[in-house]
Specification:
Structural class: mainly alpha
CATH class: Mainly Alpha
Mean pLDDT: 79
Low-confidence stretches: none
Distance between the termini: 25 Å
Length: 244
């Protein structure tokens, strides 16, 4: 039998997980909406031109690292599944709004059509990139966690974020901007964003370590399975899509 204290603890741990899901989905949707905006970041003797989405998207990797570390690979992948569903709903709403605009609004205006075109491509590319990059990111966190007996989380989160972001950017930017920019311009965007994200990953690693230490002390009933079990990662990946 589960007593009241245990029930409260289970609810607390589930609520923290839901908070991570909402944070990742919200950030991803916002990043999709502002991807067409480019910002200039001064870095020492040069300047980096990156999509505004790059400024915030790196946070989603930190949150996914924390979920993978504390809750395990399956629940980390499920965060991505919920994320894709949230983005699909958002894209559907945007599509509906742009196709049922009042007659006195020019739907062919450059800004509206640019937004619609980029939003549609971003959903397709983001879905592919999310599943590939975030799964790889989660795999690295859990695999190295078990190999290193849970040590060096800060280093692990930097390595997994860099690997995941490279995959994410190459898929996402090349597809989203393929008819809007030249291949050279796209690669410049990718590597400018990557420089920023590497710096951000190092800085966020310190934050992630403190949050992970707090979660380890407060999440005591959730015991993530070890990835050493044969076929664990493959089985967990497909189980993550069973959301009901």
């Amino acid at each position: 039998m589960i007593n009241q204290t245990q029930l409260k603890q289970i609810n607390k741990e589930n609520n923290i997980y839901i908070l991570f899901v909402v944070a990742v989905a919200s950030l991803s949707i916002i990043c999709n909406l502002i991807m067409g905006v480019e910002v200039i970041i001064p870095v020492y003797f040069t300047q980096l031109t990156v999509p505004a989405s790059a400024l915030f998207y790196v946070l989603t990797f930190m949150f996914c690292d924390l979920v993978a570390e504390i809750y395990g690979f399956e629940k980390a992948v499920r965060v991505t599944v919920y994320n894709v569903i949230a983005q699909a709903i958002t894209c559907g709403i945007v599509f509906a709004l742009l196709n049922w605009l009042p007659a006195n609004i020019d739907k062919q205006s450059e800004s509206i059509m640019y937004f619609f075109t980029l939003m549609s491509r971003e959903f397709i590319s983001s879905t592919l990139a999310l599943i590939a990059a975030k799964t790889l990111n989660d795999f690295f966190i859990v695999y190295l966690r078990d190999k290193l007996a849970g040590r060096f989380f800060g280093i692990r989160t930097i390595l997994s974020t860099v690997v995941g972001e490279i995959v994410m950017l190459e898929i996402d930017y090349n597809y989203s901007f393929r008819h809007l920019k030249s291949p050279l311009e796209i690669q410049k965007l990718i590597w400018s964003a990557m420089v920023y994200k590497m710096i951000a990953a190092v800085l966020l690693a310190f934050v992630a370590v403190h949050i992970a230490n707090y979660l380890r002390k407060n999440i005591i009933l959730t015991i993530p399975p070890r990835g050493s079990e044969r076929g664990y990662f493959v089985k967990s990946f497909f189980k993550a899509f069973k959301i009901w």
